[in-house]
């Protein structure tokens, strides 16, 4: 259940997920029509970044401005989280200064420990394990273009990383089919898989056959093959993941009205081709825009 913090999609039940998605779409409409309110007027969000990001920083910062609030941007140079200063102390101190914290970091345990000690809401902007805000925006984008999330098939190609793990979590909450096509040894987290399957809302299939995953699917999804912190593995991963490139041949196996998603940044010609990213089925820039509106729904829910 979504109470003080938002660290994982797995916290949500179906009602909460659908409520947040409806509110995100409503907030986007209100903003474009000039009818948005200022529910976070006078509130400040602390942004802790251990990993740089275009979308995460701008979407949270501008989103807070649109809600009437402001932000304080903090890097590890200021904090030294868990090194110069104990995570517990950071949480307690920031709780005296700001009204909420967004953290984008490496170890998921750091986000959990911060949330455990901060007396204010903590939002997971990304960890190596999970990326819940991205998947909320992804689902919002599919909902906008399809009108319904039930009975859809979403196929993901590439590494069983934080994005894949959060898609697995989502399939535990909502009744859609999730397929992940990945090389052997690069599957999503086993505990997350087991927990999502136990919830039983949707179905989750892990396959090593990209063509089988693409067949008759509604949504094609790609992500980078080497995430931040894996730069040394980039060349090796490029060879291992080559059969899972999202290209025109793979897209031709999907439904005629399929959507193409990518959380960005994209390496054109690697995990996805320029032809697909710029094609008529791509809603990637809608997806990027929706990061801001989906996060506004979370910010309002936790901080208003």
Distance between the termini: 17 Å
Secondary structure tally: strands: 9
Radius of gyration: 19 Å
Helical segment tally?
13
In terms of quaternary structure, what is this? single chain
Q: Numbering strands along the chain, what is their spatial order in the largest sheet?
A: 7-6-5-8-9
Helix content bin: 40-55%
Low-confidence stretches: none
The sequence of SSEs as H and E is: HEHEHHEHEHEHEHEHEHHEHH
Q: Give the DSSP E fraction (strand runs of 2 or more residues).
A: 5-15%
Average pLDDT works out at 96
Tell me, briefly, the overall form.
globular
Q: What class would the helix/strand composition place it in?
A: alpha/beta
Largest sheet: 5 strands, parallel
């Amino acid at each position: 259940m979504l109470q003080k913090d938002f660290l994982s999609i797995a916290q949500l039940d179906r009602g909460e997920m659908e409520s947040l998605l409806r509110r995100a779409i409503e907030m986007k409409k209100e903003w474009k029509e000039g009818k948005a309110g200022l529910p976070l007027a006078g509130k400040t969000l602390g942004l802790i970044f251990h990993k740089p990001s275009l979308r995460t920083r701008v979407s949270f910062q501008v989103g807070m401005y649109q809600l009437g609030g402001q932000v304080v941007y903090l890097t590890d140079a200021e904090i030294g989280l868990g090194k110069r200063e104990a995570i517990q102390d950071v949480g307690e101190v920031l709780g005296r200064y700001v009204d909420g914290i967004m953290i984008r970091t490496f170890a998921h345990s750091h986000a959990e420990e911060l949330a455990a000690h901060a007396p204010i809401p903590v939002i997971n902007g990304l960890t190596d394990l999970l990326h819940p805000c991205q998947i909320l925006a992804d689902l919002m984008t599919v909902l906008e273009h399809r009108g319904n999330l039930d009975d859809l098939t979403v196929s993901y190609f590439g590494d069983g990383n934080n994005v894949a793990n959060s898609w697995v979590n989502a399939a535990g909450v909502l009744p859609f089919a999730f397929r992940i096509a990945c090389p052997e040894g690069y599957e999503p987290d086993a505990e997350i898989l087991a927990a999502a399957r136990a919830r039983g809302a949707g179905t989750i299939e892990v396959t090593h056959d990209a063509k089988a995953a693409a067949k008759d699917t509604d949504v094609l999804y790609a992500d980078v093959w080497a995430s931040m912190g894996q730069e040394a593995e980039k060349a090796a991963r490029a060879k291992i993941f080559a059969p899972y490139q999202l290209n025109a041949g793979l897209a031709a196996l999907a439904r005629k009205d399929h959507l193409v998603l990518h959380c960005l940044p994209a390496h054109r010609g690697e995990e996805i081709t320029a032809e697909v990213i710029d094609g008529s089925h791509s809603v990637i820039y809608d997806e990027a825009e929706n990061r801001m509106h989906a996060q506004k729904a979370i910010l309002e829910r936790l901080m208003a």
